[in-house]
Design a protein that fits this description.
heterodimer, A: 119 residues, alpha+beta, five-stranded antiparallel β-sheet, 4 helices, globular, B: 550 residues, Sulfite Reductase Hemoprotein, domain 2, Sulfite Reductase Hemoprotein, domain 1, 4 domains, six-stranded mixed β-sheet, 18 helices, 21 strands, 38% helix
Chain lengths: 119, 550
């Protein structure tokens, strides 16, 4: 399973694709089960150049009934910095946040290299 | 400290207006991200994991109270109430919005600060001894030269697009507090045989994926020839430095490839061509020097009840032992403010704490504040009779941790919690180690101990020169940490050697403790950790770590 993520141009906020728009919570993101659908969404997202920067697909795993990124890096993006628990999306708390905190995975985000290049 | 003139202020105003228009054009879609990215980076604006980050230049780590309060105001209005001091003595704001960035630059310009040359392949902020103008062992104030270098290098047309970024350090003390030997250029002020001052010139030090302690290419350069010599070095680098491979583009690679002697010959030949015309006139150096007016020192001021309180209050005595350093003038001291509270993020400071430091600098510190490359702050000129009051105020604000140069005074880069380049977190590792060695008596018994942590091989956390260096690596998506031993960023500069296989995150603090325990078993009278390690080699430490890891 995959989700599509990016940083929002206006404020750098981590956002996720949902049916042509962007949401801030991974729990509300559109989840793709097929490569074709994910690729189509990514291509569409890349045209939104005044909305987001560098959209890319990430791999997901199931965690306590929620989808969580496989890579540790993407889990931190989806939660916020671990040294400030009141900063970032994790401040809201709740089951989805806890599921992300408990998630495990062992692979890099497929979009990571591209993100580094863009930095 | 140097004061901007009308031309400086006009340049900043123009630059901010230019960036405001660039931001507008980007948001309107008139610029693509590929076009905009180099423009925002030239103004210190990075995109990190969670938001934009603005890196503000703190010239040679020198701030006045007005500037510190302006940084506090920016932290409150545009960030989340805090800032982060870096190993380049700059300050970063981690939660900046793109459309706020021009307003922040305006707020900075109003107090003679900016974010220019905090990114890009140019000459970055110069590192100075944070005790400059105050250190008892100083030859002369190096900030005058730092300011001259700042003016010379700012928007320098020839050196704005170097093969790679370029960092210079200047120190005038035999005890190096700038990590000069791991800079692209390290300038060590020396007294010549003629009684004049000059520089030992070190070139080609650096960290990153290929660490080097820089070689000396000139043992003594008369100070009035500094700028032609700097120009010669930069020109040779600009001509021969590699632009085909980002990992081989720093000057250290060129110096290593040519050899220090051959590189020095190239520089000397270029220097000959440039001649004295490339130097700053003495009158200009004197003009800059005049801006660094001596604070209003009192001759032999009374120390009040300083000694009595030190004798009566153990906590104050501990602060004095670790955070108060000898001043060049009797009756004064240098107060180190630790930004390494136990369990806190190294280098982070809240807006309220910034205001407090500004107030204390104004009331007791001659209006002078320094940031250090070890991510702490300094009040360089405090009368001994005021140190107790300063300590009480710092303590009430959580800024009096008595751990300068001790094991919990850890450098840590932002790591994977913020940085788009990082492989692993650094902050939480530092926090965990600091908590393990929280007891001040234990930390003091261990003595000088420098742990430095980087979240990737770019080495922003200076792990190569840590007594214990800790490097975060990515092993199949999980955080692992590689330990090195024996590094030093001081006058005895050395690159640490790898101890053994990388450890999972939950074994790092145990490994550090095993190393410390082995040191305490092995050390002889008066030895620092580095002394013991250099005498014994790493075998006792390797055995301690990997015996306990299994």
């Amino acid at each position: 399973m995959k989700a599509l993520t990016a940083n929002r141009l206006s404020d750098g906020e981590v956002v996720f694709w949902k049916d042509g728009t962007w949401v801030e919570r991974l729990s509300e993101a559109q989840v793709f089960s097929d490569e074709a659908g994910a690729g189509e969404a990514e291509a569409s997202a890349r045209t939104q150049r005044t909305v987001v920067i560098d959209p890319y697909l990430i791999d997901l795993v199931d965690s306590a009934g929620f989808w969580a990124p496989v890579s540790y890096r993407e889990r931190i993006r989806a939660l916020g910095p671990t040294n400030h628990e009141l900063h970032g999306k994790q401040a809201e708390g709740g089951g989805a946040v806890e599921a992300l905190r408990q998630a495990h995975g062992a692979a890099r985000s497929s979009g990571r290299v591209n993100l580094i290049r863009r930095k | 400290m140097y004061r901007y003139d009308a031309i400086d202020r006009a340049v900043l105003a123009d630059r901010t207006a230019e960036f405001r228009d660039q931001v507008r054009r980007r948001l309107a879609g008139e610029l693509t991200e590929d076009q905009f990215k180099p423009l925002r980076l030239m103004n210190g604006l990075y995109l990190q994991l969670h938001a934009y980050m603005l890196r503000v230049a703190v010239p040679y780590g020198s701030l006045n109270p007005v500037q510190m309060r302006a940084l506090a105001d920016i932290a409150r209005r545009f960030d989340r109430g805090y800032g982060h001091f870096t190993t380049r003595t700059n300050i970063q704001f981690n939660w900046v919005k793109l459309d706020d960035a021009p307003d922040i630059l305006d707020a900075l310009a109003a107090v003679d600060l900016h974010a220019i040359q905090t990114s890009g392949n140019c000459i970055r902020n110069v590192t100075a001894d944070p005790y400059a103008g105050a250190a008892a062992d100083e030859l002369e104030d190096p900030r005058v030269w730092c300011e001259a270098i700042r003016q010379w290098s700012s928007l320098h047309p020839e050196f704005s697009f170097l093969p790679r970024k370029f960092k210079i350090a200047v120190t005038a003390s035999p005890h190096d507090r700038t990590a000069a030997k791991v800079h692209d250029i390290g300038l060590l002020l020396r007294r010549g045989r003629d009684g004049e001052t000059g520089f030992e010139v070190i070139v080609g030090g650096g960290m990153g994926r290929t660490p080097y302690v820089g070689p000396t290419i000139r043992a003594y350069l008369p100070s009035d020839r500094l700028f032609s010599y700097l120009e010669a070095i930069l020109r040779v680098y600009n001509r021969h430095g590699r632009r085909d491979n980002i990992y081989k583009a720093r000057i250290k690679i060129l110096v290593a490839a040519l050899g220090a002697e051959a590189f020095a010959r190239e520089v000397e030949a270029e220097w000959e061509k440039i001649g004295p015309e490339g130097d700053l006139p003495r009158a200009e150096i004197d003009r800059i020097g005049a801006a660094f007016t001596n604070p209003d020192f009192v001759a032999d001021p009374a120390s009040g009840d300083f000694e009595a309180r030190r004798a009566a209050e153990p906590a104050f005595a501990r602060f004095v032992r670790n955070n108060l350093k000898a001043h060049i003038r009797p009756g004064y001291g240098i107060v180190d403010i630790s930004l390494k509270g136990i369990g806190e993020t190294p280098g982070d400071i809240s807006a309220d704490q910034m205001d407090l430091v500004a107030d204390l600098a104004e009331r007791f510190g001659q209006g002078d504040i320094r940031s250090t490359h070890e991510q702490n702050l300094v009040l360089p000129h405090v009368r001994l009779e005021h140190v107790h009051e300063v300590w009480k105020a710092l303590d009430a604000a959580g800024l009096a941790t008595p751990n300068i140069n001790l094991i919990s005074d850890i450098i840590a880069c932002p790591g994977l919690d913020y940085c788009a380049l990082a492989n692993a977190r650094a902050i939480c590792v530092a926090q965990d180690i600091a908590r393990r060695f929280e007891t001040p008596e234990r930390a003091e018994a261990i003595g000088e101990f420098k742990i430095k942590i980087s979240g990737c091989i770019n080495a922003c956390g200076h792990h190569h020169v840590g007594h214990i260096g800790i490097l975060g690596v990515d092993k199949k998506g999980e955080e692992f940490y590689q330990l090195t031993l024996g590094g030093s960023g001081a006058e005895d500069a050395a690159v640490g050697k790898m101890l053994g296989p990388a450890l999972p995150i939950d074994r790092v603090t145990d490994a550090v403790e095993a190393i410390v325990d082995a040191y305490l078993r092995e050390r002889r009278e008066g030895e620092r950790f580095l002394d013991t390690l250099r005498r014994t080699g790493d075998a006792p430490f390797k055995e301690a770590v990997y015996a306990e890891a299994h």
